[in-house]
Specification:
The chain has 252 residues and is of the alpha+beta class. The protein is built from 7 helices and 11 strands. A 4-stranded mixed sheet has the order 4-5-1-11, with helices on one face. Strands 6-10-9 form a 3-stranded antiparallel sheet. Helix 1 (30-37) packs across helix 3 and helix 2 (42-49) packs antiparallel against helix 3. The structure holds coenzyme A.
Length: 252
């Protein structure tokens, strides 16, 4: 796993060789939820209202509010002005006419946390998962890992297998999100190296080593019992890691 140095954002400038990674706790105050609501588009408000439970509604509002606040820093727009579009597989992006610098982003949420990656002129995918023993783990392993990967996983010490699985899963998800296809790409065709106590690594994409080498990856533990992956196309990139401060000074 990479050791990341969390820092306060020094500048809102991003160049093509820099990638910003934001991590936020979605458990924000009622006051922030009320303020955030006004920032949402009619579509987002509608989706918020369709959430079954209060905590899901609040987490959704917090996600969209934080995402808008992060992107606004780079776009010179007010958070509520940002218009989103999606590709045919549902990957969101900022509307082309608002995005002359070709800012790209991707987000993931799990276990009350949000991870958001931002880059310029590059494809980016992120994934965060809460590492936990679940009864569906064996069937998930069969769905997500290729036959070879399943065999490799079972050669690792038993106490390392759960984490190694989550490390490979987040890498695969971050890759299929970076290319914008989501799970329709087929997670088992994204092959990763799995080792005890080491970050996963992209090995082959649909059998192609060159495609795997085209991407820079980072894997880290942003909070206890969580694992996160970031996959970005290109090399020689500098990653900056920011903890998003959910206080009312951030949400206008
Ligand atoms: C994207 C996907 C991998 C998400 O996996 P997940 O682990 O359940 O969820 P995460 O929290 O990591 O990511 C969800 C976020 O990914 C983004 N996302 C959605 N589709 C995406 C895609 N195709 N590529 C990249 N990112 C995508 C969204 O921002 C989404 O957030 P939202 O649900 O709040 O809108 C999975 O849902 C998927 O493959 N969806 C595509 C389905 C599809 O093909 N739809 C076609 C018709 S729209």
């Amino acid at each position: 796993m990479h050791i990341v140095q969390w820092q306060l954002p020094q500048s809102d400038d991003l160049n093509e060789q820099t990638v910003d990674v934001w991590f936020a706790n979605l458990n924000v105050s009622t006051h922030e939820i009320t303020q955030g609501w006004a920032m949402l588009s009619a579509l987002e408000q509608d989706r918020a209202n369709r959430q079954m439970r209060d905590w899901q509604r609040n987490a959704y509002i917090a996600t969209r509010t934080i995402l808008r606040s992060i992107l606004a820093r780079y776009l010179q727009l007010a958070p509520q002005e940002i218009i989103f579009e999606v590709n045919q597989y549902g990957k969101p992006r900022v509307a082309t006419h608002q995005n002359p610098e070709q800012l790209s982003f991707n987000l993931s949420h799990s276990g009350g946390y949000l991870l958001c990656g931002v880059a310029v002129g590059r494809e980016i995918g992120v994934d965060v998962e809460e590492v936990r023993l679940r009864s569906s783990l064996p069937s998930l392993v069969r769905k997500v890992l290729s036959h070879d990967e399943q065999a490799t996983l079972h050669t690792l010490p038993a106490e390392n297998q759960t984490l190694a699985f989550y490390q490979s899963w987040t890498h695969k998800e971050a890759y299929v999100k970076a290319v914008g296809r989501g799970i329709s790409f087929g997670l088992a065709s994204v092959e990763v190296a799995m080792r005890s106590n080491r970050a996963a690594e992209l090995l082959r994409i649909a059998g192609d080593q060159h495609e795997a080498k085209r991407w820079t990856t980072r894997q880290f533990t942003p909070a206890p019992q969580t694992v996160a992956s970031v996959v970005v196309d290109g090399e020689n990139l500098t990653f900056r890691y920011h903890q998003y401060a959910t206080d009312s000074s951030i949400i206008p």
